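Customer escalation, tier 2.

The customer says the design service returned an amino acid string that "doesn't look like it belongs to this structure." They asked us to rerun it and document both sides in this ticket. The original structure tokens are below, unchanged.
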């Protein structure tokens, strides 16, 4: 299986531009022979969307964009982040989610469990935490798909009581994929690499991590998407502060 990581610059609320950019990179990844192309956390609407998330029309535009993107996911699958409505009366109105799209349709929905509310993050203000975990199956592979912070409870982080990968590993996945909106700060890249490497080593699985680039509000995203083997060794490190798309063969990483 060949996995493409699309490290792009998204703009908050610019659905036309974001959708066009995602579709262009689906086509590019397809030309490069990828089976799956992976985009960042909340790629469709931009991160952090903050109080735009309070508007029903904003969420509707996210869903409309996802349906348009799905039309181009033929002979290639796509993972893309967006906010979706919580169908239940209980809890917050939204989930921070990822769609797994293949054969022109949304096949799986993965929801973020660990919602950061520190530093520049205020996700629990808007999102309901996920409590159900299930791998994505595609082309004979089981994918443990997580969203950013979901991998940051590796060393019993006192902020959280659950660890999504501890649940997903019960299904014996073949690979981990993590989509993120991870901001730049001094030496944060070292912390990020260590946390991701610890996950790969703990679960003995290759790990594909995609970040984004650009500046949103006062936040800068530095890219630096990564691929790890099951021993936690960095096998690939993508560009910093630049858009990038690279394709990796899972068989060569394992």
């Amino acid at each position: 299986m060949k996995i493409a990581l699309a490290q792009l610059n998204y703009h908050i609320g610019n659905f036309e531009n974001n959708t066009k950019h995602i579709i262009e990179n689906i086509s590019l990844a397809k030309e490069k022979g990828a089976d799956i192309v992976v985009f960042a956390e909340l790629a469709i609407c931009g991160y952090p969307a903050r109080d735009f998330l309070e508007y029903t029309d904003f969420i509707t535009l996210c869903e409309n964009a996802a349906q348009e993107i799905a039309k181009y996911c033929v002979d290639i699958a796509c993972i893309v982040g967006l906010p979706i409505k919580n169908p239940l009366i209980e809890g917050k109105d939204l989930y921070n989610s990822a769609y797994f799209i293949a054969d022109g349709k949304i096949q799986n929905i993965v929801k973020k469990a660990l919602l950061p509310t520190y530093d520049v993050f205020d996700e629990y203000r808007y999102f309901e935490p996920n409590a159900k975990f299930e791998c994505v199956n595609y082309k004979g592979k089981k994918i443990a798909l997580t969203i950013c912070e979901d991998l940051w409870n590796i060393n019993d982080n006192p902020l959280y009581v659950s660890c999504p990968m501890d649940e997903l590993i019960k299904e014996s996945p073949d690979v981990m994929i993590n989509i993120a909106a991870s901001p730049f700060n001094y030496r944060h890249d070292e912390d990020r690499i260590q946390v991701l490497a610890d996950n790969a080593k703990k679960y003995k699985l290759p790990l594909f991590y995609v970040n984004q680039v650009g500046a949103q509000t006062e936040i800068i995203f530095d890219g630096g998407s990564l691929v790890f083997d099951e021993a936690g060794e960095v096998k690939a490190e993508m560009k910093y502060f630049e858009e990038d798309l690279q394709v990796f063969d899972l068989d060569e990483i394992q």
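Tier 2 assessment: The sequence is consistent with the input. Residues 2-253 form a domain with the Nitrilase/N-carbamoyl-D-aminoacid amidohydrolase fold (CATH 3.60.110.10). The first helix runs from residue 15 to 31. Sent an explanation to the customer and offered a walkthrough call.
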